[in-house]
UniProtKB/TrEMBL annotation:
The keyword Chaperone applies. It comes from the Bacteria. Transmembrane segments: none annotated. Residues 212-309 form the PpiC domain. This is Parvulin-like PPIase. The keyword Chaperone applies.
Amino acid sequence: MLPVVSTSTRMFPAVRSALRTLFLSTALLGVGVQGVTAQTVDDGGDIASQQLNLPQDVTVFGKSDPNVRKATAIVNGRIITGTDIDQRLALIITANGGKVAPEEKERLRVQVLRNLIDETLQIQEAAANDIKVDPAEIEQSYERVAANFRQSPTQFDAYLRTQGSSSASIKRQIEGELAWSRLLRRNIQPFVNVSEDEVKSVVDRLNAAKGSDEFRIGEIYLSATPENRDQIIANARNIIEQIKQGGSFAAYARQFSEASTAAVGGDLGWVRPAQLPPELANAAVEMQVGQIAGPIEVAGGVSLIYVMDKRKVLTADPRDSLLSLKQLSVLFPQGTTKEQASAKAASFAAAIKEIKGCGQANEVGAKIGADVVDNDNVKLRDLPPQLQEILLNLQVGEATPPFGSITDGVRVLIVCGRDDPVSANAPNPEQIMAQLEEERVNKRARIYLRDLRRDAIIEYN
């Protein structure tokens, strides 16, 4: 869930850029999403009771889940301690600002134990195939993690300890991700083939779909069996509630999703509804950008989906415009009250109205004590959704309304230039082939891990 070194390979294009990039830093930014009503699922409990001849009124004498009686396990001889779980759980709690209810922590502990078991199985299988990650490479990856927090490794060690975690926990996760990626590249990717005819078929379908909607989708996939289905659905609903309360979808996907796209925060990339399983496609077409839906039953489990973005196939999108912007910002002194901030923001807004084009921005900024920063080649799509809608309708020389907070101060953006997109081109054959290969590798990787779980000797303590 943190930045690690990626390996150069055509497999996993997104993973290649960074495996599980910026787990904590992304999560701490709090990517909030607004939810839509979760789909309900018939639990079929009466049928199960009849088949097992169970009494209607069941009294449970104590907690009796044999798999989680104590949150420790021995996986093919490798011990997972309670400390291992506590330290990994601390990362999740930190990523959500510490706002995790006690009952949710218990559910998270169960999921973290499952994740650690999978991680252990992946490392063991890689070692059985003579794949080992150089400790120096792990250290380099850890240094990059610390650098994302503008800290040295030593400082980051201390920070993790204050959060109840440790560098060893993150380094173990880095090792697992790198080892598994290399194992898939050796044992699966060479046996995945995509023909030129298949690529041509995709290009033809893209051209035929020109102008139709496509979505950038995030997915959290949780595998389920008939025996644990109800528990998995409950876990999925708990994840949705945490995300609705401000948790990061990407962080939860990295931590809990069992799809290979977990490595990139669940990001499926740009897809058309026809490319998704029907259950997910039906939900996606009814959703707006920023909404989350689920749990949705799919083959082998359930999925949660998050609409990250939306556009038209092979059609120029105004949000792909490149902007030249000037940002004027004023910070509030520490201890500023809400009333004082509002008054200062109003004064700032009045001064901004006097600006006639970017040529006056520096002069006005100097008069009001504002910091002025030039930003060129900013893609409109990369800005927060609220600002996208405002900037779409601004002409060169116009400014946004003031925005900010007591902590961050108040600021405006002035449009100094705009380069509209000329056309939208289809992905080239190499990109299409890489995507098809990735999809097939991901599917086989899921089966591979399932088989490792089935064959493992796991003792729960």
